[in-house]
Amino acid sequence: MKFLDLDASASEPLYRQIYTRLRNAITDGLLQAGDRIPAARALALELGLARGTVESAYALLVAEGYVEARGQAGTVVTSALARRTAVTPPQHPLPAHDNLGHAASSTLPFQMGIPALDAFPRKVWARLAARAVRATGPDAMIYPPWAGLPELRIAIAAYLQLSRGIDCTPSQVFVTSGYRNSMELVARALLQPDDQVWVEDPGYPPTAELLRAAHLQPVPVAVDGEGLMVAHGIASAPRARAAIVTPAHQSPLCVALSLPRRLALLDWAAQAAAWVVEDDYDGEYRYQGRPLPALQSLDRNGRVLYSGTFSKVLFPAIRLAYLVVPPAQVPRFDEISRTFAAGGATLMQQIVADFMNEGHFARHIQRMRRLYGERRQLAANALTAVLGKHMLVDPQPGGMHLVLRMKGRHTDRTLAARMRAHGMAAHALSERGMLPHGASALLLAFTNIDTPARARALGQRILKLMD
After folding, report:
1. Long-range contacts for 265-270 (Cβ within 8 Å, ≥24 apart)?
2. How far apart (Å, rounded) are the C-alpha atoms in residues 25 and 22?
3. 193, 216, 349, 413: which could form a disulfide with 211 (CB 3.0–4.6 Å)?
4. 433 Cα distance to chain centroid
5. Mean pLDDT by 10-residue block, N- to C-terminus, for the chain (467 residues)?
């Protein structure tokens, strides 16, 4: 059997080589149903192998149904294969759909949603992780608590009370596997198919996509220098069942929702018996004064759900976020979470809890706030020096990206596409909305731009693409 030539130097074990070659011979039609294959003893002698090696290969073939033992008649290709219709592969087979992703080995310049990974305290994290692994016992190896690890929920509640002015108990905190999972819980717990939901325009595109996937109707509500235009929302959809807002730093304009608008939004929610989801994705990062208190801290009618995430303050791969729900809704979210929650691995939750309880989390945020203030300023100055004739940097008070307003006849979509084609991440403001508007701007993250020289070099690359 020529097809049984083996390669003793290959990394694949010899028994696997025998199995693979016989299986391929059967599937390719070289061996037909009923054909006898050599006895294990005879094949082992022919190949100069131990009999157990051949028997291991045959055991795999029998287990998968390719061959069957017939006593004195020996081992033959199973007769069931005779009833299978041979499939002729197309002459030009289509490439397989690639769902493995294309995660970059390094962060692209201006890539949004990525914190300053070079400044993350890896040594502290590694020490806490190693300790958590060593302490892992049987109780930590079963299914994780459906609403999140109690230690982490307690730590989150304590942090929010001090830093965001949110008066909540740990029972109101539900750990999730990210923003999408948080929104799924809200939709399942509080909304019905075809309900209308206000979304900011321009806004965060995945929000509308998530709502549509849940059979809800996103209603775009215009945003100006004071944030969400509540009056526009009431005029467009007064009977909406919810509003999803980013009041600390509006995504993507980075403006803060003004106090009159906050009060108007809460009044509407109370009168319409609607819900407000506060997406506080980077509320910690304000560079003019202290971070603003959360919208939830003004809620007196139990209409606001606070959505936070660790992706922006720690790192995206952590895949942990959390929801703070009104006290009256805790039983409902308990019920939904038992079925649909996916709060992440117990080990990762334990590491984050230790990181918070030992003070590393608060120190890390303070350090990042100072660092981002410096990087934001150096990036804005350098890009203005290079691109000032063509763009104007918005003076937003916080956030993790810059908004560069286009001057003249340049369009943000064309330039953003060119930047992406040349290895730079870029988003066009005009692609972030459903309502007609003439705003044309680039959205560029500054968190991983660490020197003025790097910012100037990137600005020069952008300038060349504008010719």
Report:
1. 265/228, 265/230, 265/295, 266/295, 266/298, 266/299, 266/300, 266/301, 266/303, 266/304, 268/230, 268/233, 268/234, 268/243, 269/243, 269/301, 269/303, 269/304, 270/301, 270/303
2. 5
3. 216
4. 21
5. 70 84 81 86 85 86 82 80 48 52 67 93 96 91 89 96 92 95 95 97 94 96 95 96 96 93 97 97 84 89 96 93 97 92 84 97 95 95 94 89 88 92 92 82 94 95 90
